[in-house]
Amino acid sequence: MDTHTPLSSVLFFLVAAVIAVPLFRRIKLGAILGYLVAGMALGPWGFNFISNPESILHFSEIGVVLLLFVIGLEMNPVKLWSMRHHIVGLGIGQLLISASVIAGVGWILIENGSTAIVIGLALGLSSTAFAIQLMAEKRIIAKPSGRAGFAILLLQDLAVIPILFLVDSLSNKAAVESVPWYWSILAIAALLLVGKFLLNPFLKLISRYGSRESMTAASLLIVVGAAVLMLKTGLSMGLGAFIAGILLANSSFRHQLESDIEPFKGLTLGLFFIAIGMTLNLDLFLKSPFMLLLAALALMAFKTSIIMVLMTMAKIHWRRGIKVGLMLSQGGEFAFVVMAQAGSSGVIPIEVASHINLIVGLSMALTSPLVAIISLAIKPPAKATPELQTADYDDEPEVLILGFGRFGQTTGRILAANKIPFTAIDRDAEHIDFVTRFGNKVHYGDATRLDVLEAAGIDSVRVVLVAVDDYQEAETIVSLIKEQHPKVKVIARARNRAAFWSLSAAGADQVVREMFKSSLDAATFTLTEIGYSDGEAIRTIERFSNHDNSMVRDSIKHRDDLAKLIEVGRQGRADLERLFQQDQEK
Fold it and tell me: Is the pTM higher than 0.85?
């Protein structure tokens, strides 16, 4: 009997997650498996700290809702269109073939068509979290085989909503809880209209007059509001969140929304997987461990084969196809979502859902070790041409511009003219609205926050241009980037010498004094107008520029000593006069 208070239950969740997740990540088995094992330890088949996991599971489904919203944010229509061939050919092919064959086997074993179809679709899905992590570790995510694997995962993410909708339609409770169909249509239409005309003005208003907490509250309000609207009209909460995400996919607030939602998504999704772990029936596993292990291996072998064949047809070498296929061969986190919904709604018997969950969990546990083994066993031929990175449907930014005023826009225009992808971040909503009228792509966000930088793609960029006005804010940003992403090159804008010294000390690779070059141009014109030849003026300005830059760099160590700076300045002027005097005497 569960005698624990809600607070003690929260304590158990936190302790289990803090111990299990880092441990499983350390041994390369992933956070999801860590959450599942933590749930198994807490649940009725473990230490029985919590004996009623169903109540926790119902609440924790908000994590799935938030996940679907974030997935919707990533569904940029332009990106989807550019990937259409791989999504249609590889993604749909993999899911349909896998689901059909698995459903056929299930029909033979269970003799129930609805149950078999749901099981086939659930097991046809892969774990996006596992696969992306493995492809990143093997450094293939930017290569054709990795992009093809990403297209398959993207199609699976898109397919989740129709699969959950199918489960709802098959539910035995549908007749009791049915809502007139036209309410569902009206709800979707209302959500589309609100997303089209009201969400961006609403977010601009909050960003201008609200606090950081107000923006976070607004993000949650959008997700929960859309989810509740769908629920009240007989549709899936996840469908509402997913539609809301898609509507905001091209919004300038996308990165800020994603970073605001991420902590809540991570916590509640972790709670969801812990709750799933508590429902895993270990008695069933102990009764037939070899059979379940064999089923997990058979699932992985089958899905690997299908993906390898499809990739070979797409002219990707079979060795690379089999590696990516194995990385995508496990059951996915959405299989747990589908089984939870199908079990609670009566579409699938609870015992069958428990078996499927155990097979998915085992396949997740086996993925990393098998990928390591196959990587050693199957090596590319010695004379094989290395797999080149491709720009096909690749909109990953190479440059991140932080601050998109007059200074940052110049670099942005040059990059755009040369078709070099970049992302720009600014936190002046009115300014963003203005510059986007001229075709610029700028996102709202606070660049001093690491989560915003990561949502904007700092993991993949080569260069960051820090072009914000406030040099203290710029110093904070430079320090943050160099601490968390030391390999990224940072170019920073400095308003004056003090800013130059601060940004250099913070670790910026290059610091540009914003007025220096233009003032040198003005000095050049001035010299020519008073009689200097063009060559004399240019030589004079170059001599001054080199001397001044050297003096500024040498002054960094004295930046906090005003008396010493005055002395260095006087000495510098004297040295400069002596240099010019020497030039005139030659």
Answer: no
